[in-house]
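hiii, so i know i said id send this last week but things got crazy w the move. better late than never?? heres the sequnce for the chain we talked about at the cafe, plus the structure i predicted for it. fair warning i was half asleep when i ran it
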Amino acid sequence: MPAKDFYHAAVRAVLLKDGWKILKEDYQLEYGGDSLYPDFAAERSIAAMRGTQRILVEVKSFLGRSFVADLQAAIGQYEMYQAVIDTQKLDFRLYMALAFTVYEERFQSPLAQLMIQRGQVNLMVFDPNQEVVTQWIEISSIDR
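okay and structure toks below
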């Protein structure tokens, strides 16, 4: 099982504060004998739909030496998780969680925007100090 990201505890608190029920931390996706571990599986009730919304959240800090290397790794990991979700027809929407400072300072670059659009990466932007979601950014289509 992978090590927890720098913002893992903050994102857990953010999700709970935003009304999500944590179903599992380090949720296991398995494909062909290989295991992958998104940080959180969560759900919340949607009264208007009389159902639940279920998400998988992968937390990324982008604290490495190279933003480009971190971006390559994060997008590749996201795409791998999404491919397994799609192939297994799992009822989860995938998000990459980013601190708002990382989003504001690094994810406005043309390269980051290109990769988000091309990879159809949904983002959950959060404030780790206030422990709140600042933005949900939906890029991918519901019907992948």
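btw The helical segments are 8-17, 67-87, 100-106, 110-119. thought thatd interest u
miss u guys!!
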